[in-house]
Amino acid sequence: MSFYGRAQDLASLHKAAAEVERSGRGQLLAVRGRRQVGKSRLLTHFVEKSGLPYLYFTAVKNAATGQQLEALAADSRTATSPLDDAEALLAEPARSWTEALSRIALACRSRPSVVVLDEFPWAVEADATLEGTLQNAWDRQLESVPVLFVLVGSDVAMMERMTEHDRPLFGRTRTMIVNPFDPAECAEALGEDRNALDVFDNYLITGGYPRLVARAGQATDALRFAEEQLEDEASELVVMAQLSLDAEFPPEAQPRRVLSAIGGVEVGVAAFSQVVGGLGDEGGAAETAASRSLKILVEAKRVVSLEHPVGTKPSTKLRRYRINDPYLRFWFRFVETQLANLARGRPDIARTILRRDWSAWRGKAVEPVVHEALFRLAPDFPVLGDAVRVGSWWNRVNNPEIDIVAARDADGRDIAAIGSVKWRERAPFTRSDAAVLRENRAAIPGAETAALVAVCPAGAKPGVEVDLVLTAADLLGAWEPRA
Q1: Which residue has the higher pLDDT, 1 or 227?
Q2: Residue 224: count of CB within 10 angstroms of its CB
Q3: How far apart (Å, rounded) are the C-alpha atoms in residues 411 and 391?
Q4: Which domains can be identified in the chain, with CATH numbers?
Q5: Tens digit of pLDDT for each residue in 20-33?
Q6: Cα gap 338→360, rounded to integer Å
Q7: Angle at which helices 284-295 and 254-263 pack, to 10 degrees?
């Protein structure tokens, strides 16, 4: 598989390695990101291209400490550029993590090296003292040798806790977060023949997960890719989310049910009442269960975003919930609801629903992507007022709803621009669209003089009176590398 994107991540890793070479002292780096995001692929590419001797160890799920240490010894023999004296120091399994880390320190003493402990949380599950053991080894030996020591984990919550003030490694680690491909990296992986609209469609379906993007690159367009994947209940588009969710949210757990309730809403965002209704329970118990689960999903797991209209107080009851991951948004809306049909050999039903509802769903699903693009592009377009917050606005009856509100302040009181997203491939933004946007501007307090922004892949018709028109290609430029 070819290696795409990750320029910023690789630059950060090379910078850390260069600091180790310059100072002759160790650097401890904690890398986190959700499953299938490409952490292992990134770190493998880095160690193999760095030119430095390395050890890349992957912990084994549910294995005892002895088995972990046997795997460490085996992995030490697979490096294309092994650590110095690895054959003598690491060939035989250590009897404890204290001994293993001591041997690693000896192997890294002479020249700059890289050590990666992948799936570190699994090793900690087998030995709850490992964090403390590593802290002692770091303070006594590893920090004084030229090693870039990388801890990698898919358990995001555990990796975050590991760096908190009451944990052994507090103050010793730097943090790096690996995210899925952004739209520009998706464009690179998909190939030059894809237009910007198709790139964003693929992003909404795959979420930028490298393995899914690679599969999408084999289809002619995004919708065809999704339809082909729905032919097989064991396809990666169908299965990858199930595996990831089962590892973090068991199917019978309330947070998983709440995710289904949010993701199953037609347009992908849900009010609290819709979440409660989606659980199928009755009475106050459903509200209590929903509240507790949402707290976990929003605050602890950060899988869901709590949104308020830009310009309103956070305490307002005008709140919506949205699944952050584009791929999971797509999966809950078009895959989970069709698992039974796929199992009984009726993918035609799933495809029919996808084709029927795709345009309406993607028009809403693309809005948070547009918001991020406008935030990134704000310094380039004066009408956006160098916005520091970009979101949406709605009232209690959802009439009107404003797709884009760009504010110059974090509270959303100083509104620079409002806008409308018409995610249409062939129909440009019209004078009628602009008139509705202009009329709706009066509904937002403080927006009377706000600039008008039109976002439409097909552009705008001549004579449309708005201050800024952005196409899908313009939005894609938000993620292009800047000098």
Answers
A1: 227
A2: 11
A3: 12
A4: 7-177 (3.40.50.300), 181-229 (no CATH), 249-356 (1.10.10), 367-479 (3.40.1350)
A5: 999 999 999 999 99
A6: 18
A7: 90
User: In angstroms, how far apart are the furthest CA atoms of the chain?
Assistant: 77
Burial of residue 17 (number of CB atoms within 10 Å: 0-12, 13-18, 19+): buried
How do residues 389-412 score in pLDDT, each as one tens digit? 999 999 988 889 999 999 999 888
Cα–Cα separations (whole angstroms), residue 109 to 50, 81, 142, 148: 18, 16, 9, 12
Pairing of strands 27-32, 173-177: parallel
Tell me the C-alpha distance between 414 and 398, whole Å: 22
Euclidean distance between CA atoms 103 and 112, whole angstroms: 15
Q: What is d(CA 386, CA 206) in angstroms, rounded to the nearest whole number? A: 30
pLDDT band, residue 88 (cuts 50/70/90): confident
d(CA 354, CA 395): 30
pLDDT, position 95: 95
Residue 359 has pLDDT above 80, yes or no: yes
What Å distances lie between residue 302 and 232, 298, 322, 325, 379, CA to CA?
A: 30, 5, 11, 10, 28
